[in-house]
Every structure is written in C-alpha cells, then in structure tokens.
Amino acid sequence: MFSASSVTSGPVSSAYAALVARGALTADPAQRDAARLLDDVLVGLEAEKPKGLLGKLFEKPQAVKGLYLHGEVGRGKTMLMDLFFAAVPFKEKRRVHFHEFMDEIHAGMAAFRKTAKGKDADPVEAVVKPMLRSGLRLLCLDEFHVHDITNAMLLYRLFDKLFARGVTLVATSNVVPDDLYKDGLNRQLFLPFIDLLKSQVTVASLMAQQDYRRMKFSGQQVYAFGSGPEVRAEMDRLWLRITGGEAGVPGVVESIGRSIPVPLQAMGAARFGFGDLCEKPLGSRDFVRIAHHFDSVVIDGVPQMDRSKSDAAKRFILLIDNLYDRGVKLAASFAVPLEQLGLDDKTAFEFQRTVSRLIEMQSEEYLAKGLRDAHIETVA
C-alpha cells in the first residue's frame, strides 16, 4: 500500500492532472497517489547536490530513496514512469527495459573478460565504472522481473555497487519484491538482493480501478482495409482513442548503438508508416526494442507484397513475430485483405504464419491479455 507522501503537488502530479483535465486519462486515486510518490523521489533528487567524478569514485554519496511501483498490467505504471522521467530536470538519467539493461551488463562483462585486465579484475566493477563516469544519478527500469539464474546471481553485486555510489532506482514491476525469482533455482542466494532492494526504494502497490490498456481496444475494429482518405480518417480516429486524444510527438527508440525514428508516440503507443519499419535496414533486435518500448503499435499503409517487396515482406514477418511474442496491441491499415497480403513464393510459408497471427491479434481474447515477458537473448 501507499505510504503518506510529503509532496502534495509537484511536476508529476501536475502533468497527471493536466492529462485528466484534457480527457486523455480518467482520474484514478491510486494513480494520483503514485504520482505523488514519484514527486517525492524528484524532490529528493533535486535537493541532492551532484558530485563530480572524484566524488563519485571516492566519496560516499548521499543516497536518495527510489521507488518500486508494482501492480497488474494496464494500470498505468508505464504512463506514470513516462511523466516522471520527463519531469527529471537533469541529463544524468537513464530509462531502459529491465531485460535490455541486464543484457547490456552481460555483454559488457563478456567483452571485459576478453581483455588483458579481464582475467584478474572484477567484471561487474568494470561495467559499473562507465555508468559512474557518465555521472549517472537516476536509473529507471521498466518491468523489473527476474526469471533466470544468470540475472538472479548477478543482481546483488551489481546494485550494491550502484547504490553505494548514490544511483537512485525507480522501477515498475508486475510483482512485489518478495516474489521476484519465485521458485527459482538456488533462490536462497538471491534473497540478499531483495533485502538490499527494499532498503533502497519505497515499495508501493498501484491498485488502479481499471485495466486502462484493455479499455483502449474494447469493442474496436483494429484493422482497416483499402486506401484513401476514409481509411486514413479511420486510423486517425483509432489512434486518438488509443492515446486518449493525445496527437503524439516524434520520438526515438535506441537500439544497438543506433536510433530508430518514431513518427508519433503518445501514452505508451507508437504510430509508424509501413515504410518506417519494413523499408529501412531494421532487424529482429530492433523490432524487439520497439516491442519492449510500446504497449500498442499503429501501422499505416501495409501494402500487398510481391517479389519486388521481398525484403520488406521478410521484415514485416519479423516485426509481427516480435509484436505477437510480446503481446503488443496492433492496429493497422492494409491495402488488401489479410489472406492476399503475400504474393512472394519465397516467403509464402512464413506469411501463412504471419496471417494466422494477424487474425489472432485482432481477437478480443488477444486484446484482453497483458504484455508477455518476451526475453531478449544476451549478446555475447
């Protein structure tokens, strides 16, 4: 449950109230309380004077208590994290999906072990130092969920070093800290991390009244067929329903050292043209990043794909596979009925699976489910 918040009004609460005032959100007491707790964290961060590199490395910083916000899917955790992260006034902050962050840590450790120093030095310390050198003060992790032993055995060593150097953690999760890595192999070795985590964050449950993500799509036809202004108008209407009336702004998804432009994003949703995703040099890991970044994706202008669009067809297949595996909600406009999308003999079999998934992704059963924990494979 929520503890009393010392902040009655702050940037996160104000941003939340503005969304309610213009009809993008329905006021929810639990979400309002969570916004106040995020304002508390923000007040602490603003009051803490940043230290220089030498201070980060050699002085014991004053820790600012973070927040671990847990609750069922669709209750607004990601939306509140959006508001909080946007309100943080300094650049020494980072927001990333938990599994993406851990994959980066594993990749950094593996690379360090291959160096001359890697045989004797601590690889965890090696990956933490660059974060501290960058001045990192705030780490925001979406969907904190521990399911494999490699992460479970690493987390205490990693976060003990980050917390000791004054890095504040704000995380969202579907489970309480005590249920992390539940029934996992050698879980007793993981328990010290849970104690460490609870000592560094306020644990709060977001008991919102509605599954707002589900409400966006309830009773909606999520696909449109054909072309022209009528289809575009239908997709515009659906986009505004998904975003609560927010028109959206351009954004970027960072993926493996490059930036993927997002033409429009708002309220956890993204809108792309077909060419933005399937006629650019994007691959499976890029689509995984997108699937972890947004809970809903709108795609305009999916064409019929013949041999001249073979590469685009292959990317479209990969895109749908990753959105489906993650449980992302899809709305799209198609030039032709689903069964007529693929005309390329080389991708005919794969397209059968894609069409089957597209049919399922418009069903009430699929739209009613939450996001799935589709794990990103660690890069060696």
UniProtKB/TrEMBL annotation:
<keyword id="KW-0547">Nucleotide-binding</keyword>
<dbReference type="GO" id="GO:0005524">
    <property type="term" value="F:ATP binding"/>
</dbReference>
<dbReference type="InterPro" id="IPR027417">
    <property type="entry name" value="P-loop_NTPase"/>
</dbReference>
<dbReference type="Pfam" id="PF03969">
    <property type="entry name" value="AFG1_ATPase"/>
</dbReference>
<dbReference type="InterPro" id="IPR005654">
    <property type="entry name" value="ATPase_AFG1-like"/>
</dbReference>
<keyword id="KW-0067">ATP-binding</keyword>
<protein>
    <recommendedName>
        <fullName>ATPase</fullName>
    </recommendedName>
</protein>
<dbReference type="GO" id="GO:0016887">
    <property type="term" value="F:ATP hydrolysis activity"/>
</dbReference>
<dbReference type="GO" id="GO:0005737">
    <property type="term" value="C:cytoplasm"/>
</dbReference>
